[in-house]
Structures are given as structure tokens and as C-alpha cells.
Amino acid sequence: MAGVISAQGLKKVYRRGHEEVWAVNGVDLEVRAGEMLAITGPSGSGKSTLLNILGCLDNPTEGLLHVNGKEIFGDKKEMTETALTRIRRQWFGYIFQKFHLVPTLTVLENVELPLIFFKNRAARKTPGQLLKQLGLEHRVRHLPSELSGGEMQRVAIARALVNEPKILLADEPTGNLDTRRSGEIRNIMRSLADEGIAVVMVTHNMDMAKSADRVVEIRDGKIV
Amino acid sequence: MNIYSVAYKNLLRKKTRSALTVGGIALSAWVLVTLLGFNRGYEESLNRDIDNMGFQVLLTAKGCPYEAATLMLKGGTGLRYIKEEMVKTVTANPEVEKVTPMLMQGVFDPNKGENGAVAAYLGVDALTFPQMKRYLEFKQGGWFTDNNAREAVLGYEAAELEEREIGDKLLIPGINAEVRVAGVLKRSGTQDDGTIFLPIGAVQTLFSRKGQLTALGIQVIKGADVDAFENRLYDLPDVQVVSLAQVKTTIMGLISSAKVVVLALALIAVIIAMAGVINTILMSVLERYGEIGIIKSMGAMPRDVFKMIWTETALLCSVGGVTGILLSVATAKLSEAAIRRFLPYTPHGALVVLDGKIAGFAFLMILSAGLLSGLYPAWRASRVRPLEAIRAESD
């Protein structure tokens, strides 16, 4: 299958005073549609920075990034925030460790939220259908504060999927969950990849990593 | 769900803060509407008071007080007189439509009030005076039967004060004369409400002022050159000319200055409220920094975020503005009472006049000022970089 994400020589440097810190240091990576890729490594190794660059949330200092064959970062001049937003909403769904649901909106409204800003006309599933698929049909009118951690993460997954992205990025999606809830989320991610979505996740959870098609380990900003 | 419901729910997140901000906006809207209403009401009432005098020019003897209030302040003394022949002289002018002679007299009434006070009587012509004061309507009875009748017509408040009705006798203190009440006027909202009118001939006889007048009320033909006429009157010996058009212009000039002060006060109230709006919305943006980043990562464009925050500002200002306007309508009478208490002179009639134009103008002003104050917080929010915001939220 063709690579939906293709990265060559990605580098990201941060400056701490006079010191340069290479968070990502020459990463080449390709992610194919329907592939579940786990990025592992110790804390501070550059996993999340890499994920953010792959998800167009952050600019690399150097290197090339193509999404579905389109050059996002490379020789061309830096993309504007508006252009990056267009790429993000067309291709990506994001899941975060801390769920980041809007506390004043109900479960259904949280999932509907991205549709206010961009509606993928080709999307086949409604927010209600997605919530039903994720076993949350009885929670649609509840506020996030009334949900368990696992339920909140499933709502975040539904929200990430509402515009039917081709790529799902997850940063420690089970970091705040117990073993049973982590298993639920793992199964959902696996089934999404099986449906053809490219799933890229950063995780410390070895069970989660084992369920991936491929695992890449990062140390000091490099794939080892 | 749409951006408006999201904005509305965001405002409900901190109910007390939102309520206080709405309260501040409502207060400034209340001040703005009440002051604009006062501006209008005062001007209208003053205009009406002057127009209701029934004549455009008043001629008095030099140094003579020409209204009851001044006469009372002077203790009923200080009156100067012009000769009755002056009526003919003035009527001979081509600009004159009608002339009505008047004779004001004041006597000390020891039974009036706690320590006694001056009672003023205005002698008027039974024929020409009612023609000039067409707005005066009777609650009871009518005008005098003739200019020498021992009769009186009481203004609404004068009748209340004297506790007299039609047919009652009214004693004029000092000269121990009695007159019969021939009529009681309805409330007119002018100084006539407090006046006791007597036939001019009777006043001249009772007060031994035969052939004397204190003032001439002159009605000018429509379209006549009033300035030229007034200039000719100035040439008459020992008279002073009070041009009501000039009085009106002078008072309106004073009001214009007051208008600037009043609008400046209203503007200050609006600015204070707007500072509150900036503070509230900016706080709200900073508190939701991470959330705004997530929304942007979900595909919200900077303009979407800007619109969301601006909508919150518009909602706050709309609710505050409408509340303030309703409050000003509900408290208009109370505001009027307070203004009357503090101002040394207020014309009769409604002092705070509110209508759709004032309400609409105030609402638009509050909304515009609110949207202006929402610009910076909305711009800040639209500039949030998703990654930085998410990192800040995760830390």
C-alpha cells in the first residue's frame, strides 16, 4: 500500500540558552494506509516531537514531509498556520493522553464540534453512529465530568474520527487508563487500522505496542 | 449545534463572572439610555413650557419681575408699572396679532404655609388671554364673565393648595376682598398650574392700580419679522422687552453645553463597562488556552476561533444592553424624580423621554463598543498555536 506519510531526514532542534537540543535528529519514516505504527522510547527521546511533526502540528527544522504525496515541509517556504489547518482537518485525527474534551459540551456535542469548523461531505458516519459503534450511545447527553477515563478516551476517538481522517495520531492514548480500559482502546485502534486508517501512536504501553503492525523505537531523536 | 451555542455554553462556564460583566454592561446601558432620555425630555419639556406661554414677546416696565416666582422671591415688592395706553401703541405695529394686558399683584398672606408667604394674583383680560392660552382646559367652570367681575380662575395646583372648588369664595388677604371661584383649570404641566387668575379690571380696582399694567403679552403674526419688531419696542421709553425666542435660544445654548457633559458621562460609563468586557473575555481566552489549541487541531481556522470569541462578546453585550435598556424604561419615573430633586430648575412634563430611537441607538452603541473591546481577546485566541496550547494544557 502507498505511504500516506513519508518523512526523510526530519530534524527538530530546540535552543535552551546557548545549547542546541536535537529532539528529532534525522528520522526517515514511511507510514502506509491501514498500518498501525507504534513509536516507543524513553521519556525525552523525541517521540512526541516526531508525532507532532508528522501530524503537522509542529514545523521541523530540517527535512521533508509528504502527506498523501503532497509536500508539506521541505524545500518550499514554511507553510502558514491556515494552510497547515487545511491539511490537518483534511487528513488527520488526533487523540491525546488527557482527552481534552470541552467540559461544557455533552458527549454528542464534543463529537459534533469539529463539524462546526469543517464538514467532510463524504463522511459516512454521523456522530451518533460513531458513538454507538464505540459503545457510548447511552452517554450522548452526559457531560465529560460524568464519564470514566475509558469513556472519555472513546469520546475523544469518536471526535477524532467524525470527519473520517485517513491518519489517526495518538499521543499516549492509554497513558491515563487502567489495564482493562487500555485493552478496550487498543482493540478500537486495531480495528480502525484494519478499516484502512493509518494509526500512528506514541506509547509506553508494551501491550499496545505489541498490537501494532510495526514498532519503531526512538532514542536521542533517532530511530534505533 | 453551531458556533453560537458553543459560545453561549462557554459563557455559562463561569456564571458569576459572566453575570457580573453583564451587570456592568447593563449599568452602563442604563446610564446611557437614561441620560439620552433626559437630554431629550428636558429639551422637549422646556420647549413646551416656553411655547405654552402663548405669546412670543413680553413687555414689562423696566426692572419689573415678570413671573410669579421672581415676585415671591422679592417678597411681593419691586413691581413696576406701564400705562394701559401701551396696549394701543403696541397693537398699532403691523407685526402684532394680539396683545393681552396683565397686572401682577402680590400680597403677604400670614396664613399661607408655616410662617406666611406671598400670594400672587395675575390679572388677565377675559377676552384675549384665553385666546392666547388655548391649551388651558377647565376641570370645573370657565373663564370670568367680564373684566370687572369679582371672580377667580385657579390653576390646578393653586386649587389644590387653596382647597377651593367652583362656587367657593376666596379671600384675598391684605385687602380683605372676596372673589368667587369661577373655574378650576386642569393640570397643564406649565407654571399656570400654580397661578390664581383674576379679571384685570377687578385687580386694577381692588389694588387701586387703575390704568396700570405690569406686562403685555404679545402674539406676533406668523412669518413676521420679530427682530425688527423687537427693535422698535426697545425704542419705547421705560420698558423692557423679553423675547421668548431669545430666552429659548439662550437656554438651548446652555443645554447644548450640558449635553456635551452628559454624553461625556455616558461615554465614561460605556468605557468602564468595556474594560470589564475585555478583562472577562481575555481571562476566558487565557483559561481556555489549551482548549482553543485542541479546537484548532480539529480544523478550526483562525477566523473560526475569532468568530467564536467575538460571538461570546456580542452575546454578553447584547444581554447586558437589553437588560440595561429595560431597566432604564422601568426606572424612568424614579430617575425623573431624582433629577427633579437635584436640579435647581426643571421644566414641567416628562424629564426622561425614552423611545425606540434612543433604545436602538444605545443598543447599537453598546454592541459596537463591546465588539470593539472583543477584538483584542478574539485576535489573541485566533493566534493560539495548537501545539503550544496543547503542551501548556498537558503540563
Offer a concise description of the structure:
The complex is a heterodimer of chains A (about 220) and B (about 400). By secondary structure, chain A is an alpha/beta fold.
Question: How are the SSEs ordered, and which strands pair?
Answer:
The complex is a heterodimer of chains A (224) and B (395).
Chain A: E1 3-16, E2 19-32, E3 36-40, H1 47-54, E4 62-67, E5 70-73, H2 81-91, E6 92-95, H3 107-117, H4 127-133, H5 149-161, E7 167-171, H6 179-194, E8 198-202, H7 206-210, E9 214-219, E10 222-223
Parallel strand pairs in A: 3-8, 3-9, 6-7, 7-8
Antiparallel strand pairs in A: 1-2, 1-4, 4-5, 9-10
Chain B: H1 3-13, H2 15-51, E1 57-61, H3 68-73, E2 82-83, H4 86-91, E3 96-109, E4 117-124, H5 128-132, E5 138-141, E6 151-154, H6 156-162, E7 169-172, E8 177-185, E9 196-199, H7 200-206, E10 212-213, E11 215-220, H8 226-234, E12 239-243, H9 244-287, H10 289-297, H11 302-330, H12 332-342, H13 356-382, H14 386-394
Parallel strand pairs in B: 4-9, 6-8
Antiparallel strand pairs in B: 1-11, 1-12, 2-10, 3-4, 3-11, 5-8, 6-9, 7-8
Helix pairs in contact in B: 1-11, 2-9, 2-11, 2-13, 9-13, 10-14, 11-12, 11-13
Outline the structure in words:
The complex is a heterodimer of chains A (224) and B (395). Chain A is globular, with a radius of gyration of 17 Å. Chain A has helices spanning 47-54, 81-91, 107-117, 127-133, 149-161, 179-194, 206-210; strands at 3-16, 19-32, 36-40, 62-67, 70-73, 92-95, 167-171, 198-202, 214-219, 222-223. Chain A has seven helices and ten strands. The mean pLDDT of chain A is 87. Helix content of chain A is 32%, strand content 29%. In chain A, the strands form two sheets. Chain A has a six-stranded mixed β-sheet, sandwiched between helices. In chain A, strands 2-1-4-5 form a four-stranded antiparallel β-sheet. Chain A is an alpha/beta fold. Chain B has 395 residues and is α+β, with helices and mostly antiparallel strands. Chain B folds into two domains: 3-49 and 251-394, no CATH class; 63-237, no CATH class. In chain B, the strands form two sheets. In chain B, strands 1, 3, 4, 5, 6, 7, 8, 9, 11 and 12 form a ten-stranded mixed β-sheet that branches. In chain B, strand 3 (96-109) and strand 4 (117-124) form a beta hairpin. Chain B is elongated. The model of chain B has no long low-confidence stretch (mean pLDDT 86). Classes of the chains: A alpha/beta (224), B alpha+beta (395). The A-B interface holds A 52, 57-58, 81-82, 85, 88-89, 94, 96-98, 100, 102-105, 109, 112-114, 116-118, 159, 163 and B 1-3, 6, 9-10, 12-13, 290-291, 294-302, 304, 385-387, 390, 393-394.
